[in-house]
UniProtKB/TrEMBL annotation, chain A:
SUPFAM superfamilies in the cross-refs: Sigma2 domain of RNA polymerase sigma factors, Sigma3 and sigma4 domains of RNA polymerase sigma factors
Transmembrane spans: none
CDD domains the UniProt entry points to: Sigma70_r4 (cd06171)
Gene name as annotated: sigR_4
Protein source organism: Neolewinella maritima
Keyword Cell cycle: no
Source domain of life: Bacteria
Residue ranges annotated for the RNA polymerase sigma-70 region domain, each copy included: 23-87
Domain RNA polymerase sigma factor 70 region 4 type: 117-169
Family named by the database record: Belongs to the sigma-70 factor family. ECF subfamily.
Protein name per UniProt: ECF RNA polymerase sigma factor SigR
Entry-linked Pfam families: Sigma70_r2 (PF04542), Sigma70_r4_2 (PF08281)
UniProtKB/TrEMBL annotation, chain B:
Region (Disordered): 1-26
Residue ranges with Basic residues bias: 12-22
UniProt biased composition (Basic and acidic residues): 1-11
Species of origin: Neolewinella maritima
Organism placement in taxonomy: Bacteria, Pseudomonadati, Bacteroidota, Saprospiria, Saprospirales
Keywords: Membrane, Transmembrane, Transmembrane helix
Record protein name field: Uncharacterized protein
Membrane-crossing segments per the record: 49-67
Amino acid sequence: MTTEQELISGCRANDRRAQRAVYTQYAPLMGAVARRYCRREADVDDVLVSAFFRVFDKIDTFKDAGSFEGWIRRIVVNEALMLLRKKHALKQAAELTEVNPSHYSIPAVAAERLAERDILKLLDGLPTGYRTVFNLYVIEGYKHREIAELLQISINTSKSQLILAKKRLREQLEKLGYPAR
Amino acid sequence: MSSPDTFDRQFRRTARGLRRRPNPANWDRIEQRLDGRARRGRMLGIRPWMIAAVVLLVAGYAVLLALPEPKVPDPLAQRAQSVEDPLLGSTALPTNRIAPYRPLQDGRTDGYLISHSESAARLTVAAKYRL
């Protein structure tokens, strides 16, 4: 059994078997990450190919102290954002002036019962801007300041997009039969 | 990290559990790009030591060009200067290029010439000096 450290060393030595092993191990998880950002399967594949090429190309910059999976995930997210930016999918961003987040909160019980298959259905139902901010904030755990920098939008726009995403999600949850109120 | 509410936490947990079967063609595409990178590197054949060698060569050549030329007196230049100086109205005295008179060493002090190459019989006195 090859350890993660051995795989990383193999990738640093440009060993094709080690690179293949890293790809085989992380591609299913990273494919799901890319899929949350991109609706089209072809875009998901493009993101995955670019991201893993970058992983092997920049393996020397990986610090052994951090999580290898987390490092790959960040690269995949960055590649997905680059693709969305290239397609001008992040241009439209609304900003709310007055909003009460409690109006758009969703009960936790809805998420507890949420089936994995419905997650993608819900995310696909969101406009790209909402979906991207929701992904970055809720799933990746970025702060609004970081999201604003990543997407080159204001912090308020990031917050507005999240609230609007949750509002839309609540409507969709109701349609899917989940308790959204 | 942000501080997610309960719904966010649940959603995050479920979403992070998702897996997607990768397209089998993806690995071939990645491998192709990795091969292309390696081939480009081999074709260019550029290594850090090569860059360093080129930089050293260029720097050496530049230093050689920047060095001042050695001051060797040019005889032609000196000759031209000595001819042109009087024309420019220089107050310096012109160099006397005619050697000072020195009496002939050959012959005798009473005026008789001695020839080393002609016999005495063939030597004649010019008509105007004949008595």
